[in-house]
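#struct-help
A.M.: can someone run this one for me? Single chain, 575 residues.
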Amino acid sequence: MTTGTIARDWLARFADRLERQADLDDLFAAERYWRDVVAFTGDLRTFSSADVTAELAARQPRTKATGFRLATGRTAPRRVDRNGVACVEAIFEFDLALGRGLGVVRLVPGPDGGYRARNLFTALDELTGYPERVGANRPVGQADSSKFGGPNWLDRRRASVAYEDRDPEVLIVGAGQSGLALAARLGQLDVDTLVIDTHERPGDNWRKRYHALTLHNAVWLNDLPYMPFPQTWPVFVPKDKLAGWFEAYVEAMEINFWGSSTFEHGAFDDRTGTWQARIRRGDGGHRVLRPRHIVLATGVSGIPFRPDLPGLGDFGGQVVHSAEYTDGADHAGKRVVIVGTGNSGHDIAQDLHANGARVTMVQHTPTTVISIDPSAATADAAYLTAPTLEDCDLIGLSVPYPDLVEGSKALTARMKELDKDLVAGLERAGFRTDYGEDDTGQQMKYMRQGGGYYLDVGCADLIISGEVGVVQYADVDRFVAEGLRMADGSVLDADLVVLATGYQSQQENVRRLMGDAVADAVGPIWGYDDEGEVRNMWRPTAQRGLWFSAGNFQMCRTYSKVLALQLRLALDRRS
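D.P.: on it. Structure tokens below:
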């Protein structure tokens, strides 16, 4: 049988039994996983073993999923090896009470020779009444082309941004890739949305970072919704180029943006179902908004973490956190100690060295080091599993946690081989490396703990050659006025200490902005839960009306739609 016939046959049998509430068990392999994104569960959930068929049967009466069929215009069914499993992979679509769903199924041969599902993925893709206004559904613009007198497009945009006579339905705190991608998606769903940021201009979160910064992964993975980067752009995008694109994106996508605006406090009113959000504007004045939903889109982590290092208060030089560092030219010729060996620590060390500073890095725990080329390029290529980025995103969403772990192990094993000489050189220089707690590499480190890795753009060679020094924190005694005193009594003289020590958790940011009760109720944010879903991210939280969005560009592009659909649903249910 052809792959199309295999997939159509399974979908027909699955649809028939699901609609009749008949037994589904023999349609699935013994090892089975079902990941659902909003369609059946209203949440992000992953089930395995017998729970798969039990949960499908229990949720079908309310979901009313019908019409399972191969998706038109998507990658055709094909034979693939996905995370070490040979299978027939098919993209399908279906109808449900709320609108339209999209999914992926991976079929493996059963003991009787028939095909059974090892992996099933279902997701809400479109809400009835809210088709994305793209392509044939794009706005006509007739109000602006045939109306003379009265407000024009620019007048309406200015009024929309001002919020003089209304409150936004959704307030997004943070204008990075996460906040802007979500705002663009919400605009397509007719959700009145305001994005605020402490920075003055869109893109300042990149524009004001250290001088030498570029993105460390390939440009073709980083497109924002509706506006892919130009094909002429470099593989690794400079931060100022990206910042300008963010500013253009806000204008092109008609995103309501308030710069120089700080979210100071939020309190939820259960009676009205709205927040009281106090915002300090750039002119020193305050504005209280009453949105129904607040999305904190300020990143995986929030407040800079400044560890209480012994003697740091006695140090006679300058101390800055990596979040405050801007340009190595400001420190030419200085002696610098950098505490921390993640991406920021390495990039700052390389920038300082290029400007003539003498740099020593202090390493506390082993760091996963990956070469940009070939290893990171290999990881980027591994994501491109289909002819279009849209289908690559869908396939990426469809992978359950156990398969993600196995796939990460296999990819990391390839990286180990590619980078063995680089890592050996670092180890000889006294720099400790690892590949994560279970050899799953830098991406799983990011997902589990938000850091602990470096994508090498040249600093590793400086460490290997001795041009950038490394000491272990275990060999440190304390800071003194002159610099860093080691356990053997020697002193590393320093003029500047850079704390590349990361950030406090988002939960602590919630505590600061909304109080202990909300922070404790919500719990940890980021990292995986028992099902392998990311905790409190892009999904309902214990605090009504509070949501979180973060991650790299690829995550923000894919999960912005997931979260936008949930917010539209929540608003409709309250209206």
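A.M.: thanks! Residues 553-574 form the longest helix (22 residues).
D.P.: also worth noting: The mean pLDDT is 95.
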